[in-house]
Amino acid sequence: MTVYHDSFPWLTIIGLIPLVGSFLLLVPGFADLAIKRIALLVSLVTLGWVAVMTADYNVHKAGFQFAQSTSWIGQFGIRYAVGTDGIGLVLILLVAVLVPVVILASWHDAEAARPTATSVRTFFSLLLAMETLMIGVFAATDVFLFYVFFEAMLIPMYFIIGAFGGPQRSYAAVKFLLYSLVGGLLMLAAMIGLYVQSVHQLGHGTFDIFALEKLHLSTGLQDWLFLGFFIAFAIKAPLWPFHTWLPDAGAESPIGGSVLLVGVLDKVGTFGFLRYCIPLFPSASKTFAPYVVALGIVGILYGALVAMAQRDLKRLVSYTSVAHFGFIAMGVFAFTSQGGTGAVLYMVNHGLSTGALFLVVGFLIARRGSRNIDDFGGAAKQAPILGGAFLLAGLSSLALPGLNSFVSEFLVLVGTFTRYRAAAVVATVGIILAALYVLIAYQRTMQGPLKAGLEKMKDLDVREIAVISPVLALVVVLGVYPKPLIDIIKPSVTATYDRANRHDPAPLDASACPLPGGYDGTGKTLPDFLTPAQYAAVKQGACS
Amino acid sequence: MTYTAASGLFAATWLLLLFPLVGAALLLLGGKALDRAGYQFATLMPIASFVLAVVLFFHLKSQPTSGRAVDDHLYSWIAVGGFHVSAGLLLDPLSMIFVLLITGVGSLIHIYSIGYMAHDPGRRRFFGYLNLFVAAMLLLVLADSYLGLYVGWEGVGLASYLLIAFWQYKPAAGTAAKKAFVMNRVGDVGLSLAIMLMFATLDKVDYAGVFGGVHHIGHADLTAIALLLLLGACGKSGQVPLQGWLPDAMEGPTPVSALIHAATMVTAGVYLIARSAPIFDLAPEARLVVTIVGAVTLLFGAAVGCAYDDIKKVLAYSTVSQIGYMFLAVGLGPAGYAIAIIHLVAHGFFKATMFLGAGSVMHAMDDQVDMRRFGGLRSVMPVTFATFLMGYLAIIGFPLWSGFWTKDKIIEASFDKGGTSGYILGICALLGAGVTAFYMTRLMILTFFGKRRWTEGVHPHESPVSMTAPMIVLAIGSAVGGFLLILNGGVQHWLTPVLGKSAEEGVHTVNGTVLTIITLLVVAGGMSGAYVAFGRPTVRIPWTPPQAGAVVTAARRNLYGDAFNEAVFMRPGQYLTRFLVFVDGRGVDGAVGGLAALVGGTSGRMRRAQNGFVRSYALSMSLGAVALVGALLLVRFG
Known about the structure:
The complex is a heterodimer. Chain A has 23 helices and 3 strands. By secondary structure, chain A is mainly α. The longest helix of chain A is centred in the middle third of the chain and has 34 residues, at 169-202. The two termini of chain B are 33 Å apart. In chain B, 58% of the residues are buried.
């Protein structure tokens, strides 16, 4: 794995901008409106920096770019090391895009949820602090540094839910915290295990991921350490059956918090699979891959079925995410370039489409003062723009071809199909269920006769249109032209799998091809992991 | 297999799509400012595409036969590892026919809608959706890869959803739209899986790559691909067992029923199979299944069509049945591809004529659809009657009208398949022709002849010229279209480069003239039956349907198709989701809740969750284990 150091501290600066903003907001004396404007400005400046950094990213280098490394806690070999490959980059991009959207969307939420003198500054300060931590977690290349960000993220999120959330907020916040802490402890234990191994094998302890992945770990040890990381990430993602904290947290959090929680924070889990589990524990990843794919399938069907029966709009959106995370996990552990690339693209697209859904649902709830789906009906007639936005966000969620999510979902499915055919077939049934949960929700809220209590419902105002339109524009653009993101993601995904020595299977019916051992060419036997040379040999046969 | 790269005039192929796409975007995003004039702009868009299509047609015709498949590559859409899909358009004889049909009939129906939707407050939205449909449908037929087709495929599904639910305050409209989308998605699972299987076996999903490589695919996989494509086709084209959504789709405004749910979108399944001819050519078992689906559906649709009193529903089941004929024909392979397409085009004309006529009648009768409330409209609405008559004569296959040329060809080709299966299919097709004549004659009599059974206060009148003009154009097409389409085998020759040699050369099982006479006798039988039952001066048509025996009752309930779906899928599905919701939060949540209580973060709800739910924890955990083991088996041994 090549690491390209950069003399210019891109990632550090980008991480610091929102942090400085966050502290600035705490300085007494700013009026509420000034605080909101500063927060928005800071997040936009961050977005600008990220955009420039992205333009500077070289897609032809699959390694880590903008890398920086300095000693932090010398006696334990802990370093402040950051850098990003394409996978981290697109997620940082997602953070930078969503935070200004969330700030603008939450414009009136803080004082509405908690009418105290300091609520506005606290809320927006927490949001900006979250942004720093989210960027940090995707940029860290030192496991300890990652762990610090991973755990620190919980704190602002805990307060956002616990102080600004719905009626059950303290229950939801505590549950969120406990689940995450349990996962974090397991990861901590596994991390210490790795550290001890590094002391034994290298003579000095390190948390540097590039050094750690060169360690030789026995199969048994790998399995245990893998599980430590995996469970932490599976809770965060969340994968079925570790998902039960999500509907509560997603439903009780204020809308801005829900968007960040489900849209970004949860991606740390699936991101962790790719960044940590696979390169650090390649053979354990192979061992456990079928189990993870199985969890993914169950999640896809289960999440969709449970979503369908929800009465609470925010819980409904949360459960759809359980299904989507099933797709992502399946794609990552299919170990094909399509599956992996699709999964990473899915992380970005899910951030946009679920973000948009939460935002639209938030608009609805703000108008009616209720999250209950039965309190709505026929709203599209009163508020056609809101109705259109709901439908477009929903269509993105059900992965309509032509919109962003289709590209990622189809890549995941096709990438899984070449490895686990039956699994992909069952997962494909999920697309029917997705159509059901989206259209049921749309019908109940937007179609039919107008529900009593909605007669005075207003359509979106200018601020709300400004909130939702950039997200929906991306939903369309990335569906029609996903190439820029794929170009960034794909080389890094392949490089990640190469580190674990995994390659795409050859086409099955390439019957006349010269065949590596064990593959009968009739399509009856699935070829296992071919080396690039074998793959090329198969491809050069009569398959062209 | 390669296509010629587009150059010169052909490089403008993408403009075909651009016009309606711009129209849709403008009208849907433009807001109220466009309420007044937007629809006129939107009407010009398909007309612009049609003009361009005509120009492209003559240009394509001037090329040598080998150069009539032109690929307009736009940009690289998705490229990951071996998975390469470009955004590209393929203009060849097959897609050309569809482009002309879509833009031609589409333009006429836009014009008709100017009159039909004149007083609707949602007119701008309506025209925006119509433009969106035309763009998606053009993409469906023009895409040069299966994935590109899939985008158009679900795009037309979206447009159909939006237009069925156009009057969204009607609860039935929302439900019908949802049903259409979801049943289509069932079919789309088949299409998705077919594409995945193509990629897994060939590393290709574009037409050139797939058709060039079909010989390398093992027979089992090839048959699987063909059957999965068929599933997709059944969903989109309302074929048994996925027929249930199409009659419900009549909740949408009538121009929509004419354009989308009769003339164009629902025939996309036939296009898909004809387009995939190189695959189906090598999969005879799959083709047999296609013919069976077609034969069953054509009889199913015709039988149910006899029992309904709703004029649009009768026409909808008639569409189901006519598309059954097309499926039967494409299932016959090279012998039938071209005649299926010919019948498709002819059907596009005569069914659009009749739907627009039905719309005109509804317009006159205050949006009533019950034929028991019609009667004697012939004299009040002469233009509507005359044009409808053309459509009627065409569909029943009256000598010299469209269906006489095109449907008879399908009956003939079915017999010519040879063997027992040929006879069975041929007899089904023949029987269908008789039933068609029966229910269409019934529709004509109940609507236009006999006594006036109008609801009080209804004053029917002829429709404005913006509505009748398109009806007249389409009626002329219904009258002479079939003859022109088969004249000198022109269309068959035109399609030969794409679909292979067609039927004419084959050996006939039954002498052509004899078969034509038999067919005409069967048709005459159906007509007389309807006359005896409904047309004689002594017959009185009551306002409410009379009691009937088991067979008619079954037909009135669409042979229990909806009841079956309800009992087998919807009810159990509802129980399952409710059960899962009950179980959710009792498994892991219970364990963690306990931990939370231990740590001290207690709340009332957690404590309650602790008490007395031990059994349900155990139950849900073991159910979870079962689900997981099942999924694992799939992954391991699938």
